[in-house]
Amino acid sequence: MALKSDFLIKGVDFCQMRSKVYVAYRDLVFQDNVLKKANKANKFRAKLDKTEQPLRLLLLTEDETRAEVVDKPVEKYAKKLRMKYRVLREDVKRKKAKALKADENADVTSLDALLETTLAEHEKLVEAKRAELEALFQENWNNRAINEEEIRSKLEALVAGNAQFYDENLVKLDQEFEKKNANYSKITDLRVKFWSKIEGVFADLIAKQNAKTGKKDLEPLPEDVILSARDLSMHFGGLKAVEALDFDVKKGEIFGLIGPNGAGKTTVFNCITQFYKPTRGDLHFVTKEGKTISLTDYKVHDVILKGIARTFQNVEVVKEVTVLENMLIAATRQYSSGLFTQMFHLPLLKKEERIIRAKADQVLQYMGLSLYRDRLAWGLPYGILKRIEIARVLMCNPQLIILDEPAAGLNDTETVELAALIRKIRDDFDCTVLLVEHDMGLVMDVCDHICAISFGRKLAYGTPEEVQASKEVQEAYLGTGGND
Amino acid sequence: MTAKNDYLVKKMLAEQQKEQSAKRALQIFDKFKHHPVLGYVIFAVVLVLLQVLAKEGMISTSFIGAVGSTLIYCIVGLGFCLLLGYSALASLGTAGFIGIGAYITYFCFAEYNVGVGVAFLLVIVVAVAVGVFVGFISLRIEGIYLAIVTLGVAQIIKEVLSALVDTIKISAKDITIFGMGFEIREVKQAVFFLIVAIMLLLMWVTHNLINSPTGRAMLAMKNSTSAAQAFGISLMKYRLLAFVFSTILAALAGLLYMLYIRSEQNSAGTLFTLSTSLNILGAVIIGGTKSIWGTIGGTFIIFGIDKMFLQDIKFFNDNPTLITIVCGLLVILVVMFFPGGLVQLVKGGIFKLKTLFVKWRVRRYGIEE
Predict the structure, then answer these.
(1) Confidence (pTM)
(2) Is residue A477 exposed (0-12), middle (13-18) or buried (19+ Cβ within 10 Å)?
(3) Between A and B, how many CB-CB pairs are < 8 A?
(4) Which residues are paired to A401 by β-bridges?
(5) How many CA atoms lie within 13 Å of A81's alpha carbon, on the beta-carbon side?
(6) ipTM of the complex model
(7) What pLDDT, in 10s, does the model give residues A378-387?
(8) Which part of chain A is CATH 3.40.50.300?
(9) CATH homologous superfamily, domain A225-478
(10) What are B's interface residues with A at a Cβ cutoff of 8 A?
């Protein structure tokens, strides 16, 4: 039985993804439960308040009661009349304008008088209403024969009782939700156990297959290296875009690739992300688990799973959806829901959607893009689009971030900000950055090591100072001196 | 005397109650205002009501018949929504896939008499198989070339089917739906309800797909293939998915058409020809490719209007070719002035209505200082 190893590896990834989803969702459920508990407690409190309310209202002073019983309804009534008056006012305004247009000396005093009389009428109506309600209030207030002390003590007793009720209920709620949380943890544990068992089966199969075919793991890279290119060559027909390029990118550094136009920088990037399959040479990469893999074994859309995410020279943000949805697109491979789940929006998809949306919100917050969360990407300024590209990369849990000309089209202040941002991302997300850039200021400022290439060949490698001092680099950029 | 019996307290409590209930009503309204599926359910209920009215004799049977056959084209259009609007793939093979569905249904009922359930399963399985096969071959190319390849496929399917049997006809007696037999007069009604049910289900499924990672992945792919690939979206997978989905829907439409109309002559009719594919493409573009409601509206304009309304007018009845001219004019006008489809027009209209309402209020009440 020769199962394809590709399928097996995907199986392992899938199982890990499922386990992760359930664990992440458990935390969300716990958070929810805290809110739900508070909500339930508040509802109970409101219920208790309702029983106290009549007594409290009975104890209000004369003025307070009057405000409730007389002033509020009168105010409402006045508002209603005011709307009526406004309709009349607009009507009169139009009529007046019409009359004046027809005849400049027209007599419009009658219209003005109508307005005034109506206003006065309304005032009278309001007064009448107030008097009526006031009389009713006075009558009832004077007829009220209550013992305030008695009621006060009654209320106190009720409040004390209610407080006790509330506390008892709180304890009950605590127990209830603790139980719920415990149950959910148990279910989550079972699910995780189930998926890890399946993962074990897949891992065994892989081991067996490897033993059978005698396939050995790749020779590990030196400890601090994350990406190494050896003899990397890319030919398009007769054109040698990249020729025998060697370089190592160290873990946690910012690595710059520079060169004049057409030197093959973007081709190198495309080789790393497998948009092009290199004609010759090795590209080895160390994954999060510390395993060395050969990138050329992977398809272009599977490279992201290994932790390599890239941006584009000309921003490729999806313009017809919102910024948030752009983030979700970047996280497409983090969903483990199958087609059936997606067709009928089963609970698993809803769980994943919540988890990933929360993550997207975090990333947007980090990048300072929360303001644009629900805006269409269409028509956003270029600087923001560039930021969205970087935010998209951060959504993919990257090990290695590849930035293709991040400063192109930015102004000077934005470039300075970008340099700080790149450093910050490197430190906060604990990843390596590989960038191609024309802006020498940015490159020299931000990079730990630089590799300069020209016509697909390596010119120099080293720290910024070393590369700056290199004669070949100066020649490639400025041309050879005329005298020699 | 208890506190609640006091007149003043009673009044105050009543006031509070009123405020609370108004607030709650507003909350419930807000919850349902933007509920997506509610609209589909209302649509289905209206269609069912139309059929009931037709049974009572308040609506002409020809009208309801036109609605029924238009709904069948709507189902094809839904598949196109995903294919054209979200994946930007233009296929002209629709008629061929409708033909496959129709012929399978014919064989299921007229030759082997196996019932609707088996026919459904068979149609879906064959549609998936054909879709995957054609998709694998043709989805390596895009745009106009894909349209040409699928056009060829449709032509091949049509010729093969016509060589098999030319006239397919199911008698109403043979039709049973999930074990239930019907009187000859009632068959059409029962099938109409079946169409509405399937339509509702498919609208819901399409809506779900659009609003899930799959729909977003398709959009990403449509906008920029390289960015999509960089973020782990396999072009072949999602293109194939959209293609197979639209194939299944077309084949299902073929099945429903055979149940509803019950006869079709391959060589004389136009159902399995290019014109159907083109009409559906036009309908989806007119309605608005990215919207389910737009797709349905467009289909009703292209397929529905002439049969539902224009045929009743004597002038058009005497000159049937003029109907095509009117429809063609509509297509030109919509594409010229509303390139986003009729959805754009409706959305603009709603926005205009809202502004008009605000203006009316200002005119009526004036501005309070």
Answers:
(1) 0.88
(2) middle
(3) 132
(4) A309, A433
(5) 17
(6) 0.88
(7) 989 998 999 9
(8) 225-478
(9) P-loop containing nucleotide triphosphate hydrolases (3.40.50.300)
(10) 1-4, 6-9, 11-13, 15-16, 205, 208-209, 211-214, 216-217, 219-220, 223-224, 226-235, 241, 363-366, 368
